[in-house]
Amino acid sequence: MSTENKEIIFKIRNLQTWFPITKGFMKKVVGHVKAVDDVSLDVYKGETLGIVGESGCGKSTFGKTVMMLEKPTGGQVLFNYDGEYKDITKFNKEEMFEFRKKVQMVFQDPYSALNPQKKIYSSFEEPLKTHGITSQEEREKMMQRVLKMVNIQPDYLLRYPHEFSGGQRQRLCIARALEVMPEVLICDEPVSALDVSIQAQVLNLMKEIQQELNLTYLFIAHDLSVVQYMSDRIMVMYLGKIVEVADSRALYEEPLHPYTKALLSAIPVADIHNKKQRQILEGEVPSPIHKPSGCAFRNRCPHCMDICKEQDPALRYHGKEGHMVACHLYDGKESGDSE
Amino acid sequence: MDNKEIILNVEKLNTTFISDRKEIKIVKDVSFQVRRGKTLAVVGESGCGKSVTMNSIMRFTGKNAIVKADSIQYNALKDGKVTEYHLESIKEPNGPEMRALRGPDMSMVFQDPMSSLNPVYKVGDQVAEGLLQHNKGMKKDEARQKVLEMFRKLGIPDPEERIDCYPHQFSGGMKQRVVIAIAMICNPELIICDEPTTALDVTIQAQIMDLLKELQLKEGKSIILITHNMGLVAEMADEVCVMYMGRVVEFGSLEDLFDRTSHPYTRALLRSVPVLGLADGQKLETIPGATPNPADLKGGCEFADRCSECMERCREKTIPMFEISPGHRVRCLKFDSYPEVD
Is the pTM of the predicted complex or chain greater than 0.90? Predict the structure, then answer.
């Protein structure tokens, strides 16, 4: 899909989330875990932006920071309030409260996201009460509306979470997030705790709901094939940085960054006649505390050059429209429309 | 096929758990063979009994489990001579006979490397334990040398240093290598891998799978790979056994399963997984409903309620296995014109 003429819902500029490492009695800061390090990106209204990377690459922290569940240590997140961009990192308590209605989150583990001691009814009522819907009749009407969306019978409201299967629970979590009519849903590994046959149900449902409500999804997952199925655009992260952003089809057909290529080739394919040549990455993700100098990927990269040791590559446009990559292999070959 | 070719032959394995004085059948009449030097993949969703089947063979099931089988025959091949072991007749699950087999003959790699290592022992000692246990009189130094050799073989960097580290100093992928080292140290012929890479990243999964393939090619190990990832099956397996609610629903060679998929459940399993490069707008097929609770299963086909091709008679009685081509067996009434096997 074309990125032109599209309304931007989030403008993320140089976002930074560093966690301090303290030592000793005085809690002296001796270093930082750079979970999200200088990430800049636009998120368009109505799209699904997939975020992939190995564990520890900062994708969950990125999702949480965009929602201000984790306070960023630097940078801006501008959110579109009917054409006017406001920096949510500077919001006070009241503004934050209002912002929460716009952006909601679905978490990975549906088994721990619902209070086991409360009936679904009370879990569902709470956000509506909090956001000031005082009439019980109206609350019930809203609850039934979202339950219908996720194909769960309204009379199940009087049950407890343990009476539901994993897939049903994740659908309930999605329904609860939808209650306050958000514009953006941040989904942090929504299907990785589910069985394969249930995964497909939840993924298809999420797609249907998106079309119905014109939602924007930030879809975080480690499984590239799930992300590719869900997303319009994909952002690949490695050690807190964006290494590549592209249209989901382009990323699969013409990956540019060596890390994306390796990630794609590592996925086992359920096709016995076209066995592909694997490109296996040596070693593992280095610790985010002691990142290598220059390009963070250089010690696993098959194309490592001298410049990679010294200079951290910037994210630049290359190739097709909207395709961005941070790699020295493409130095001096940028396409014209860079910022 | 003779005993030289078949390393493990399981016939009509049944495992029942007793819970609240009720008997719940988890594994029902499971039969399969593992060929020597080949990989058998056992596929199915969580709760389908694939892990319980393997634990029943290894006798790792708890006290509330009753394991019954017509035959669990393990054929050891040492120096060109075949020795038969009948595991079903071994009474004590942790007696000397079973213990002698675990390690030097068959061993297991568990799913979660984080929890299958003891955090308070050095990894080297944990790997050497099996070696010292099975070779009375072996010196500790000698065992240490063997562990180092194994670490080198499995690609653990700086083995001299790493052997004295504790599990928390290892990353997930390295821990799983240690767990594989524990399984491999006594040079077993059959390795059962229970979802060995589910807890790991794809790039590390690729490394571990390559390692297993290499071990098989170089040393002729037989592998049982339990997984729910059809992609891994396609890359690793020679034969595939699909399980659903405690029964084998389809068994055949890799080609049988992928090119001549016969059971509706196998087909659904293959089609419901997102693959890279799906066309725009193409939707995933879903399997309606959820896996039933094994405690309240009715008679008839277990998959009937979720099957798109379910017929009236599917619900009447237990469905037998039909052999639709040599070695390719399906538990579905659509194929009742073929000979019944069991």
Answer: no
